[in-house]
Amino acid sequence: xxxxxxxxxxxxxxxxxxxxxxxxxxxxxxxxxEDALVQRRKVVQRLITExxxxxxxxxxxxxxxxxxxxxxxxxxxxxxxxxxxxxKQVLDxxxxxxxxxxxxxxxxxxxxxxxxxxxxxxxxxxxxxxxxVMTAERAKELGRKVEAGKRRAPTRPHPNTPPRPGVLxxxxxxxxxxxxMLDKISGRDRG
Length: 191
Hints:
By secondary structure, the chain is mainly alpha-helical. It is 79% helix and 0% strand.
């Protein structure tokens, strides 16, 4: 089983791939046709799903470990969780707009810049400090929890849900079930 850094790095790689694809376009402004815009929206929907699951498990498992083990962990986790909450709001707004609307590209540009900054913060600031104080065994255990958590995590952002592990563990399964039902009804799970 992979350790937590490997699990999260795989998520970051996939998110970066989607961000690169979205940055490359095409967009309405560059003359994209309806089919291309529909495909662009599908990529954004996958991004929303993957980011929602990723952030939920980080808030449930990863940031508590940072708080517990890293000197200045509370400050680092608070900063990261604030970034994540802001990202969830943008992702939530993106659910309601279509790729042919100007607001779509504005929101997407904001998210892409913030996501790249957040990933860099985690990988360059947080991970080295956590690696220095976390045993290999604990890193693998945390990796297992994160992997398992993603399978039952919400698939939509919930910016108004307090990002506290206890709240997430208690409400997460019900919220995730509701998300998956909405995804099925809306067809979002096929995108």
